[in-house]
Amino acid sequence: MIDAVQRLRRRGGLPSGRSRQRGRPADRRSAGADLAARGVAGGALDAEQVRDLALWCDRLGRCFDPQDLEQRCGEINQLLAETASQPYISLHDGHPHLHYSAPGADRAAHIRAVTAAGLAYVVCFAGADRLGRCAREACDQAFVDTSRNGRRAYCSLRCANNDAVARHRARVAGRHGG
Asked: What confidence score (pLDDT) does residue 141 get?
């Protein structure tokens, strides 16, 4: 879910105070389709929901910044408290699974509940150090480290490769007097 929200922001569907690049004007229809593809049912987001989610994304982003365990848990606990969700087990598709927002909740409320619960789950069951930001200077994307050894430093293979190429070019330029 968090990656879907980030994709919306990169496409310009959600404004960002953190982004280093300017996005295109919000396309709420494509944002709605992207969310629907990840199990968030409903129509297009209205302008108020888009603004609400942009603010929420900025708050989520703080949870991925470098910080001690107590501070990170405090940030996530604030998010959880604001969602006021009551998780429950649903069987609507024949298989038991958790829902984090009330039936009929609007899409923005659902996204807030699911993302806050997801961050809490990662911190409690995978480790708080699994939340991070891309090490490439030109990128500030947040990611959840799902690697086996827990040493992921980049949001994607593309960023890792771009950074390696930049470091190599800087070394070569330094040897040849630049």
From this structure: 95
